[in-house]
Design goal:
Helices cover about 60% and strands about 5% of the residues. It has about 180 residues and is mainly alpha-helical. The protein has a two-stranded parallel sheet.
Length: about 180
Amino acid sequence: MKTGNAIAGLAGMLVAVIVLWLMGVNLMGWLGCWMTPGAAWLVGVLMAAALGAGFGLLWPGIAKQPALKKLPRPVGGVLYGLIVGLLFVFVIPVVLSLLAGDPSVGLSSGTGFDVFPEAFGAHLVPALPDLGFDPPMRALAEKDWFAKDDFVGRLLPFSIAFMLFGVCVDVLSNSGK
């Protein structure tokens, strides 16, 4: 087990979280709200770190494939990140939904009215903290992205963020070609 690749995965996940944050998407809150709606941030940070390190550890084996060896180094990382992004778009919400008992997931408004959906069993993705400005790339994530079936709304923002994740993992990992 190479800790350098896990650290590269953590750094890549940090980049993906920041890029999604700039689009108004709360990845950590979204990951955590499936399991523990009351502690979504804490569980989401741990899940994001575990997934980032895990995907970072997978990269050296994938980078050795002949098809990726022929490509320039960042292009292989972009493809890997795109695949990871598609996993976050299509597979991870289904798996988390099955583990959590298929709850309905909504987006918190950040006001006191979140009590009503929670009373009916909805899990709410926490609102992003107010930093005094609107996320500059919010237009890329205008469609609903938080529910299990919102594949179309997740496709563009998650693909962009995780392509950058793949580039970071590729550049920072110690698996040379």
